[in-house]
């Protein structure tokens, strides 16, 4: 796969993200479009890609470890009774083109293919929204339509037998720093208190930056959060938390996640206020 030059995303007159549509990555990384680097308005990077601890983590985007047995996350696949196994089952999210491309956002069409077959058709919308002089929001909506001609289901390591690992859907890999980021939610503090829990929003606060993630539709807010801080900094949604998510032939799954990107360390009230503004934008 020949890499393309990244698409630039601007907000308040500043470049705040680069979007790579066709990364030149090995197949076992499950190549897919991703946002990196994403920065605060002050220029501080808040994403990481291909880190040493998880080489298949790619900035901010959409990744699913199990679509009908195919790996669109990258790395090993968790197999019940065997644990993480290196399998030749990786898929690719192919960028089919932009339907709209503006300085502050885009509308993209993608195909999720594996084994020579298109399993899902995706319609992705990304927008950068100005909030304050020190904060902006990344508004990302993805619609996955079953294009396989048969019923499919989406799973996770949790549904395949690994407790606490229900990742898959929207995912944001933050940069590793000398100390783990602070984690808090609307009414809870700490990684253990927010991981695997349904909450209006969760925040990750590092060295001079804060990210606040919110499920911006009623259906999106039903998905529990997947949160890591001590092992590595990352936050995502859980499309398949307690059980596999069935997607019938021709059916569509839609999720919208809004992420506040702020300079400095926000407190709970500050995070809540910016989330309300971002979701309403």
What does this structure look like?
- This protein has 281 residues and is mainly beta.
- Helices cover 6% and strands 47% of the residues.
- It has helices at residues 191-194, 268-280; strands at 7-11, 14-20, 34-38, 60-67, 70-72, 77-79, 83-85, 92-102, 105-114, 117-132, 135-146, 152-155, 169-173, 182-185, 201-205, 209-215, 225-228, 234-237, 245-247, 252-263.
- The chain has an eight-stranded antiparallel beta sheet with strand order 8-9-10-11-20-16-15-14. Strands 4, 5, 12, 13, 17, 18 and 19 form a seven-stranded antiparallel beta sheet that branches.
- A hairpin with a 2-residue loop joins strand 9 and strand 10.
- The radius of gyration is 17 Å and the shape is globular.
- The model has no long low-confidence stretch (mean pLDDT 96).
Task: Draw up the topology in text.
Layout: E1 7-11, E2 14-20, E3 34-38, E4 60-67, E5 70-72, E6 77-79, E7 83-85, E8 92-102, E9 105-114, E10 117-132, E11 135-146, E12 152-155, E13 169-173, E14 182-185, H1 191-194, E15 201-205, E16 209-215, E17 225-228, E18 234-237, E19 245-247, E20 252-263, H2 268-280
Antiparallel strand pairs: 1-2, 2-3, 4-5, 4-12, 4-13, 6-7, 8-9, 9-10, 10-11, 11-20, 12-19, 13-18, 14-15, 15-16, 16-20, 17-18
| Strand line-up of the largest beta sheet | 8-9-10-11-20-16-15-14
Number of continuous helical runs: 2
**How large, in whole angstroms, is the Cα Rg?**
17 Å
Q: Identify low-pLDDT runs.
A: none
Strand segment tally = 20
The largest pleated sheet is described as: 8 strands, antiparallel
The shape, in one word, is globular
Q: What share of residues is helical?
A: under 10%
The helix/strand order is EEEEEEEEEEEEEEHEEEEEEH
* Proportion of strand residues: over 45%
- For the terminal residues, how far apart are their CA atoms? 37 Å
Structural class: mainly beta
Q: Give the overall pLDDT as a whole number.
A: 96
